[in-house]
Write a structure and sequence with these properties.
10 helices; 6 strands; 42% helix
Length: 224
């Protein structure tokens, strides 16, 4: 029996904070594997985000050569939004003998009881909550206890705070600031694809050539 951490998100783009949170979760839960799940979330259908293909490939680049990590492409290949409840249920069927943990940040945790079919998520996975350090501790504990009474398994991690967000990184890219919070191969891919810049266009004609070029490049060590 293995312990598997599921980490879903738009990853627009995936950054070192995501990876650091996953690595903290691996250590904290003594887990064997992290599965990244780039999604097409229903609440962002009309938002302008990088394509699913771009976000999937950036996840693969960011974790290339890192044994505990894998990337589930099912949501992107499906091409339509899916709810977390459906995703977790599908993976629970795929890994029936393993213990599943669903990793989420403190903001998402505090809104968890508003999720569509949140009880289905909790039925199939233990919630593993990453803390930034600026949360109201009493509110977090109250929510944990409230959900526990509802039968939800909740673990609050004591990880170091992660102080970068994808929104901040996109702003830095638009203002042509350093991309130090990104894996070098992800940073190169963003530049080659002209992602997140004001001049961004949905140019898929060169995607195959660019992904092949980046894929054949040497693997870079991850920076934190």
């Amino acid at each position: 029996m293995s312990r598997i951490i599921l980490f879903g998100g738009t990853f627009d783009p995936i950054h070192n904070g995501h990876i650091a949170l996953c690595q903290a979760a691996l250590d904290f839960a003594d887990a064997d594997q992290v599965i990244l799940i780039p999604t097409i979330p229903p609440y962002k259908q009309n938002a302008k985000i990088a394509s699913g293909e771009d976000r999937l490939f950036m996840c693969q680049l960011a974790t290339r050569g890192m044994d505990p990590f894998s990337v589930d492409s099912s949501e992107i290949e499906r091409g339509t939004p899916a709810y977390t409840a459906d995703t977790v249920k599908r993976l629970a069927r795929k890994y029936p003998e393993d213990d599943l943990y669903y990793l989420l940040g403190s903001d998402a945790f505090m809104a968890f009881h508003y999720w569509v079919r949140w009880k289905d998520v909790a039925e199939n996975a233990t919630l593993l909550v990453g803390l930034r350090g600026d949360e109201n501790r009493e509110e977090m504990l109250y929510e944990r206890d409230r959900l526990t009474r509802e039968g939800v398994r909740v673990i609050l991690m004591g990880n170091s705070p992660v102080v970068i967000s994808a929104t901040e990184i996109r702003k830095k890219i638009r203002s042509k600031e350093t991309l130090k919070y990104l894996h070098p191969d992800v940073a190169k891919y963003i530049q080659l694809r002209d992602l997140y810049y004001d001049s961004q266009e949905d140019d898929t004609s060169t995607l195959d050539a660019i992904t092949d070029k980046v894929r054949r490049a040497p693997v870079h060590a991850h920076e934190h």
